[in-house]
Amino acid sequence: MPNILGLKLQEMEKLTDNEVLQKAIEIAIENGLQTKDVNYYTFNRFIGAVENGDYSMIDSFDCYNLIFSHYFAKAFWGDKQKDTGYEEISGISGGERVDTSAICIEAWKYHLQQMVLCENPIDYLRRFVDNT
């Protein structure tokens, strides 16, 4: 079954959590994430891990500290508007809803909220990295 990026689920599941993190960080950096945006020490440890392929110095606190930061989310998912699936009702006439409009928020906010609800946030990120 393909996902929204056209990758087969089996291909995405082949990525380890470290590979998902590496690709997600690379995407965020390519999209403008900078050292000044996040905790300098944590960010440099991630950069070192990505460059050396050694994630042994990264603990789960560092991981969550980075991926749940607003700066990471903005760089990773961007500022485009995302339809939340909810509608705003501006009026009711005769028991009928009138003038409804979709409620949209910035994509990074939407996805950050969704990731918080996941048991394993790396699995949520996994859906957005490609397997190249």
Summarize the structure in words.
The protein has 132 residues and is an alpha+beta fold. It has one domain (9-126). It has 7 helices and 2 strands, in the order αααααββαα. The protein has helices spanning 9-13, 17-30, 40-52, 60-67, 70-77, 107-117, 121-126, and strands spanning 81-93, 96-106. Strands 1-2 form a two-stranded antiparallel sheet. The radius of gyration is 18 Å and the shape is elongated. The two termini are 18 Å apart. The model is unreliable at 1-7 (pLDDT under 50).
Strand content range: 15-25%
Structural class: alpha+beta
Q: Summarize the biggest pleated sheet.
A: 2 strands, antiparallel
- How far the N terminus sits from the C terminus, by CA atoms, comes to 18 Å
Radius of gyration of CA atoms, rounded to a whole number:
18 Å
Shape verdict: elongated
Number of strands: 2
Helical content (DSSP H or I, runs of 4+): 40-55%
Which parts are unreliable, with pLDDT below 50 for 5 consecutive residues or more?
1-7
Instruction: Tell me the series of helices and strands, N- to C-terminal.
Output: HHHHHEEHH
Number of helices: 7
Strand order, sheet with most strands: 1-2
Please give the domain count: 1
Mean pLDDT: 75
